[in-house]
Amino acid sequence: MARRNPLIPSLLLASVAVLQGADDPTARAALPLYQVIPAAPASALTPTDGGPDPAKFRTWTASHGDPGARRYSALRQINRENVHRLQPAWIYRSGDGARNVQANPIVVDGVLYGPTAGRAIVALDAATGSERWRYQVEAPAQLGLEDAPARRGLVYWPGRDGIPPRLVFASGRWLYALDPATGEPLASFGEGGRVPLPTGGTAVGTIFADTYIVPGLWGDVFSFDLVTGRQLWRFHTIPRDGEFGADTWRGPVRDGAHPWGGMALDEHRGIAYIAVGAARPDFIGVDRLGDNLFSNCLVALDARTGSRLWHFQHVRHDIWDLDNPAPPNLVTVEREGRRVDAVACLTKEGGTLLLDRVTGEPLFPFRLRRAPASTLPGEQTAPYQPFPELPEPLSSPEVRLEDITDRSPEAHAFVLRQVERSTYGWFEPPRLGVPMLYRSSRGGPEWTGAAVDVPTGRLYVSTNHLLGQATVHLSDEQDRDPALPPSSGETVFQQLCAACHGDKRQGLGMVPSLVGLRHRRNDASVTELLRLGGNGMPAFPLLEPAERAALLDFLMRRNQPPPAPTARRTTRYFAVGYKFVTDHEGYPGSKPPWGQLQCLDLNTGRILWRKPLGVYPELLAQGLPPTGTQNFGGPTVTAGGLVFVAGTRDEMIRAFDADTGEELWSAQLPFGGYAPPTVYEAGGRQFVVIAATGGGKMNTKEGDSYAAFALPVDAIGNQ
């Protein structure tokens, strides 16, 4: 049940409730509590076609292992019995800078291909880590998310009929094709080895016959001819006028629905599955009313034509940043004694869509619950949102009072004071000027996604369990265009106030936000507070009158430079988001485990085990059990009964027993490994390799390495 905090100022609630355009809470409450999309009968599900050649799972020619994004290796030289003997085999240092690398490298015929910290693509001897060639990718004048070469992966195409093989990857607004033997761009592909990718690329695409299908970072899905580079088709993830779904966007804003999570491909059936993200702007939907297709959807496309075959939307009219964050996974599960082909898709609210690959029908009943109404003027929330039973949720979008950290009385009290100023609950909508606690940004699966144990139909997922905070404000509260100089009042604020209230007035820890202050206080009360202090705030009696007046103007948003022209994507509101609730010592404000590795059996829909992932050594020394840490790594599973995963703040890589979740091995990486591991064979040895460059959202030290592990030769000889 949603919690509405009694400490929210009653005047603010009363003022917004009477304004036109908000949801009608009485009408919402009269709706049935639940709706259910029934599961398809087992007899109607698509029987397995046998899947890909098992030999494909002994190679790693595409990031995430294969076109089905399963990250499964059939290699078993390293197994439960000998993994404790795993040791470093080689470490490669690119020497061209220090920067977070998130790609899952590929290995073809004993050669490893992947990006470096310095924006190059390299080929390494997969047995020794020695560099064979390097191709330096051109850097744009201003770097964006899409401008890291092969940011989240690359693929190998073997060629055909005398047409040479190629490495394919995106960088910036371009799609590149290199000669795998030399690293030189292939002149026959577009112009000089590259073709325009209109919306940029980040997630790796997949190869279908002689075409490359790739999701664009900033929207849409594209298909290119692998021989010439010619664009063959484009699917709009936000429908254009006249296209199916266009009527689900009502208002001046059509933004988001970016398929940055990635895709998978059923090669035999020619179906591409696209994980599409949330609508934008996050947390505000007043200028994009409706369900907003194809945001928050798993979309199935005909790989030959790009036409939509089916779609399944889990969250409608998203105002909580609940993207589909990771590539879908092709799976085969058992139903009433029959093996059937399905596709699984992780969602940020912790659910797992499990759908028939051909029809899009759910394999388990998909339950929805009546959602809370909004009080934000102009907002019209969807009446129902997901409330799944099976597959069993990996996490929950609901924030509850009992979720607050109990690490120590001091930590609990510190976080409780923040919670008491906020709204929280299950799909509780944002309120004007009041912090909203939510879980999506670090509350469940991340972009690294899942690994599939192909024979058993088990899904292995690393998850986070942190509390996020976002607040919606009126648009006239936005900060100035950063290209313009600060006002004199902002200069005073940065000198005296920013250390406690944050450089964007957003508040830090228990110190409240000052955004929207003019709607809560008048000039006289703020002047008095500056003079005398109060509630933990020191007095500033020595402020010169001119400085006090300038600071007051800044806080009350008078005489300020205008915001950036692109900042106002809605006409009424903007959001301050992606703040994370921590305790007084900087640890997560929710109860541990803060990071987990989980095993979900897709045959039954039940979670088989959950284990904390990562440790804070200093907390272990205090006698606390393992808490897990925030993580961005993602697992890989092998036929040797092992799950390899890194991604934690402690910069370790670990191996777990795939059946029990018992940790069997760990090793320190040179830098944090914030990408999934790759498993391959070279020179008769099985290796596990990971990009270990640190940095990224974990903010650990940055580096430039790939680290590979293998069994000692004498252990291999005893197999």
UniProtKB/TrEMBL annotation:
GO terms for molecular function: electron transfer activity; heme binding; metal ion binding; quinoprotein glucose dehydrogenase activity. Belongs to the bacterial PQQ dehydrogenase family. This is Pyrroloquinoline quinone-dependent dehydrogenase. Keywords: Heme, Iron, Metal-binding, Oxidoreductase, Signal. The keyword Transmembrane does not apply. It holds the Pfam family PQQ. SMART domains: PQQ. It comes from the Bacteria. It comes from Oleiharenicola lentus. The keyword Metal-binding applies. SUPFAM superfamilies: Cytochrome c (SSF46626), Quinoprotein alcohol dehydrogenase-like (SSF50998). The lineage of its organism: Bacteria, Pseudomonadati, Verrucomicrobiota, Opitutia, Opitutales. PROSITE patterns: CYTC.
